[in-house]
Amino acid sequence: MTVLKTSLRNFVAHKGRMALSAVAVLLSVAFVCGTLVFTDTMNTTFDKLFQATASDVTVSAGGASDTGQTTSRTGKPPVMPASVLGTVRGVQGVRSAEGTVYSTSVTVIDAKKDKLSPSSGAPTIVGSWSGNDARTMKITSGAAPKGPDQVMVDKDTADKHHLKLGDDIGMISVVGTHHARVSGIAAFEVTNPGAAVFYLDTKTAQQTLIGRTGVYTDVNVTAAKGVPDDRLKKDVAAALGHGYKVRTAKEVADANQKSVESFLNVMKYAMLGFAGIAFLVGIFLIINTFSMLVAQRTREIGLMRAIGSSRKQVNRSVLVEALLLGVVGSVLGVGAGVGIAVGLMKLMSGMGMELSTDDLTVAWTTPALGLLLGVVVTVLAAYLPARRAGKVSPMAALRDAGSPADAKAGAVRAVLGLLLTGAGVAGLYVAATSDQAKTGSGWLGLGVLCTLVGFVVVGPLLAAGLVRVLGVVLLRVFGPVGRMAERNALRNPRRTGATGAALMIGLALVACLSVVGSSMVASATDQLDKTVGTDFIVQGDQEFAFVKPEMVRQIKATPGLERVTEYKILDADLTTPDGKVVKNGTINAADATYAEDVRTKTVAGRLADAYRPDSMSVFEGFAKEHGIKVGSTVTVAFKGGRTARLTVRAITSDEVVIDKGAMYAAIPTVAKYMPADKMPLDQIVFATAEDGQQAAAYAALKRTVHADPALNVRDQTDFKKALKDQIGQLLNMIYGLLALAIIVAVLGVVNTLALSVVERTREIGLMRAIGLSRRQLRRMIRLESVVIAVFGALLGLGLGMGWGATAQKLLALQGLKVLDIPWPTIIAVFIGSAFVGLFAALIPAFRAGRMNVLNAIATD
Amino acid sequence: MTSAVTIPRHGGTGERTAVAARARQVVKAYGSGETRVVALDHVDVDIARGRFTAIMGPSGSGKSTLMHCLAGLDTVTGGQIFLDETEITGLKDKKLTQLRRDRIGFIFQAFNLLPTLNALENITLPMDIAGRKPDRAWLDRVVETVGLAGRLKHRPTQLSGGQQQRVAVARALAARPEIIFGDEPTGNLDSRAGAEVLGFLRRSVDELGQTIVMVTHDPVAASYADRVLYLADGRIVDEMHQPTADQVLDRMKDFDSRGRTS
User: What mean pLDDT is reported for chain A?
Assistant: First the structure.
């Protein structure tokens, strides 16, 4: 009981010193809980949405995917004849049935030819206005569309693009471009997950999307009273026979939910991963805090031991304090987590996804997990310092305060750390020289882990060395103040090491990713330079944004072009000579000129030969796996078409960045096996200018392509830039998430400094007494902070660059040939860390400067 | 009540006044209202230049407070304090810091040295902070006087308590301050080490002309001084010149008994 009492008193007495540790726990727990609450809320939202929008039974055309997605490579949704509607209506138990048409591969533009698609990547849907839609939407102005020149827009899209009744809207589909005027605006009564929706009347929709009337993509069936969905489904399916997809409301909702869930899960686990890193960094902070509290209390603990406390009791009292810290931090963290979730929802709203806080879902497991994590991590982190507290001898009560250096532990630590680091470096070396991607990545992981742990363990030793070097380079300029800052940073290398290591983790990841990202760009650029023989690339900004036939005709008619290459992707099941069936493969069909446009290296055969009739190429890995040689025959069953037997004429290298894993065939070859209406649209169109006509051709091509704002035309320079931007964006997102770990690490620096200042109260008093000015004192603390931060940055950047370089060597097997170290980023991070050090010292320096000289001297 | 003010006389160190520091009607009070405690009650005192002054008195008499106020470490509630001709009461922290750095030396009871610096670095610290080059010859003489020549590269933890205090004395002397203030500088030392340190202080007064003010409650320590001031209840109650340890002890006993009877 007394243990609890002393712990409680200590906790309360030192709450200021614990505050930053609590914040670290809080942040990590908040991030975990925020992620969970947010993803749960998204799930609830979508669940409600899917429940609300699905009709009792839905009949879809045979080719539709489970989620009812109508996109396909042909640019047209799969359809069924209108007669289906009559058949369904005749089934017993059907109260009503309605045929609908909709498509998600339409580009919608306003009068200024600006795209009216959501920027978030959510789909643009053009469809017929049906009774099913009317259930979940309310027309807020105007009226439902009637006739070919009317279109209704959802309110979110109308608001975002300032659309008014009567505005012109163009819909570019595979059939052609259809113009209509806004007749009405309808608001969602359920959460709109961001899609832009345009409604036409049924006939107009059929003509605009499919090119003919009398077809539907779906038939929505409403059950008569008392007829269960399951039975109705069975009856409808029986009446229709094969070739249709008949599903109950629940099945539709579940399928949709599943696809959303898998996306949300990726996000959830990625964010939890970053929360995990923050936790790891937080551990350093907690260890440091408790080590310092124990050191500061050495005399007190010695007294406790002298008057009869057992080691266990002392040990336990520290752990109880950690427990309290964990509980306080976690409880606050759970609360902050809900706040983060709400913030994320607001953020999503800003991006077009209207989420309602009414749907806020906090499962009981979320706070439970948050609390458990926070408390367990805190107590585990405090274990070592607690054990050290238990080892304090009763004699400590009599000795002058001061923490004697633990030389023996230093030696053990050095050996262990060096061994680990050595093992890690060996692992990295094996990974770098490995010629097998799979085993290589295993070694890479091991190497990364060992070097990280090794650096952490050996950190104090490195601190001793590196800080001296930094002292010579950085601090000598500042004279005696610099020297004292250096000595202070050196006086407890373990503390400096741990503080720096916390910063190291985040920065190592930043450095590693920046090296890999930059190498990716450099390698792709390099390969583009070496292999791409075409000038312009026309493609959509989304996966299912195709270059429609009309556009292809116009591109071909653009002056100044020497050749134009079409490029399509087909789904197919492949049967290889070894008798294995590869399901859901893809064939890249292109014009023969593609071999000149992208001169992919081959390991056997000539690429141009793959474009001969009934020929194809396969990639190296595929060939190896299935024992394919030049001359082998592969059976290709085209989805929606017939089965072909194609001869392999070339095997392409795997050390490529562009079109990795592509299997090529000529468009005429593929056309033989595909009915014309099932032939996919062009994914990409390559255009090559006549010599000397590049600039003029580019301008002309831009004008041509401008007709479809879903498409972009890029020359090589722009393409490289787009590639760079794309990778840059991804990296920025990851840096943003890593910022959490870095913030916790900065808190660690602040914490270490603040506690050091408290610990050195007397020294500071003495120095002030003999004439150190406040400004000098503050500078001393700032310099110490900068040294710690720069130390962490050096370790982190060094380690991260090592990891990145190793990863590049390993990925060279996959075409990442060029190592590019992004020096501007690295240097910016390095300089930034110095500023972080300055920033971290702000409050501790201020507090030290404000210390009363006399109190400082009098402290006992 | 005896006033410790002497009539200012000129001489000693050239044209400077013979008084190194003086306090006039200094009041130091803590708290307010009913909890008000007066530590210094209208104290007047002159510290003679080139002399060794000891301040004595029982615990709570205000002797440490007086020293802290004289040294510019603490602020006063009322009255004035002059260091030479500079009034230090009312100076801003920046000026006070400079004053302490350039014109005053300190020796505390314990924890005089920065553990991260070696003996020599500790000695030159005030000058380093000020950005001044130490006077090499003077430094050597000081180091020799305190007998630390062989231990200049040692860290404080590698020195004995007596050696540490000698380093502190050397630091105080090295910058040639106008006054050195000592707060029980021998309080943590055994009698032999204490005698050593006091001997050095005495010699620095006699041979180097240093002004020293020392707070102590040890009659033996006080006997090294030229003059002893007695404080009780925040007032100067007595003083003694050229004291011996026995005289000081007798006087202390006297105060004690008076304290008990009154």
Answer: 86
Sign, Cα dihedral of A459, A461, A465, A468: positive
The CA–CA distances, whole Å, from B149 to A811, B40, B114, B143 equal 64, 41, 19, 6
Q: Which domain holds residue B191?
A: 49-75+92-260
Report yes or no on whether pTM surpasses 0.90.
Answer: no
Report chain B residues whose CB lies below 8 A from the CB of A774.
93-94, 97
Other CB atoms within 10 Å distance of the CB of residue A19: 18
Q: What is the CA radius of gyration of chain A?
A: 33
Q: Do A70 and A166 reside in the same domain of the chain?
A: yes
Cα–Cα distance for residue pair A363/A345, rounded to 1 Å: 17
Which residues of chain A make contact with B106, given a CB cutoff of 8 A? 769-770
Question: Which positions in chain A have a beta carbon within 8 angstroms of at least one beta carbon in chain B?
Answer: 400, 402, 479-481, 483-484, 487-488, 490-491, 762-763, 766-774, 776, 853-854, 857
Cβ-Cβ contacts under 8 Å, B102 against chain A: 771
Interface test mutation site (partner B, options A770, A772, A859, max chain B beta carbons within 10 A)? A770
Q: Which of B108, B117, B127, B129 to mutate to test the interface with A (most CBs of A within 10 A)?
A: B129
Per-residue pLDDT tens over the stretch A174-219: 888 899 999 999 988 877 777 889 999 999 999 988 888 888 988 9
Q: How far apart are CA A451 and CA A508, in angstroms?
A: 11
Looking at the 3D structure of chain A, how many domains does it have?
4
The alpha-carbon gap from A792 to the nearest alpha carbon of chain B, in Å, equals 22
> How many CB atoms lie under 10 A from the CB of residue A725?
11
Size of interface A-B (CB pairs under 8 A): 72
Q: Which residues contact A243 (CB under 8 A, 6 or more apart)?
A: A62, A80
B62: chain A residues, CB-CB within 8 Å: none
Contacts of A487 in chain B (CB under 8 A): 114, 116-117
Task: Provide the ipTM.
Answer: 0.78
Contact B115 A770 (CB under 8 A): no
Residue of B nearest to A856 (CA): B73
Min Cα distance A497 → chain B (Å) is 18
* The pair of three-digit structure tokens given for residue A251, joined into one six-digit string: 């099945």
Provide DSSP, A164-224: -TT-EEEEE-SS-EEEEEEEEEEEESS---S-EEEEE-HHHHHHHHTSSSSEESEEEEEEP
**Do A214 and A102 belong together in one domain?**
yes
Which residues in A lie closer than 8 A to residue B93 (C-beta atoms)?
Answer: 774
Residue B259 contacts residue B58 (beta carbons within 8 Å): yes
Q: Are A610 and A664 in contact (CB under 8 A)?
A: yes
d(CA A103, CA A81): 16
**Which residue of B71, B115, B129 is in closest CB contact with A772?**
B129
**What's the number of domains chain B is made of?**
1
Question: Which residues from A are below 8 Å from B117, CB to CB?
Answer: 484, 487
Same domain for A390 and A486, yes or no, is: no
Query: Is the pLDDT assigned to residue A804 strictly greater than 90?
Result: yes
- Answer whether residue A451 is part of any domain: no
Token pair 């009949």 is found at A59
3-state secondary structure of A500: helix
Q: For A2-28, what is each residue's pLDDT tens digit?
A: 667 777 777 787 777 788 888 889 999
Radius of gyration of chain B (CA): 18
Q: Which two tokens stand for residue A596?
A: 């000149």
Distance separating alpha carbons of residues A90 and A108, to the nearest angstrom: 37
Rounded to 5 degrees, φ, ψ at A556 are -65, -25
- In this structure, the answer to whether residues A172 and A213 fall within a common structural domain is yes
Spatial distance between the Cα atoms of A95 and B51, rounded to a whole number of angstroms:
116
- Report the gap between the CA of B168 and the closest CA in chain A (Å): 11
Residue reference for tokens 């916390």: A502
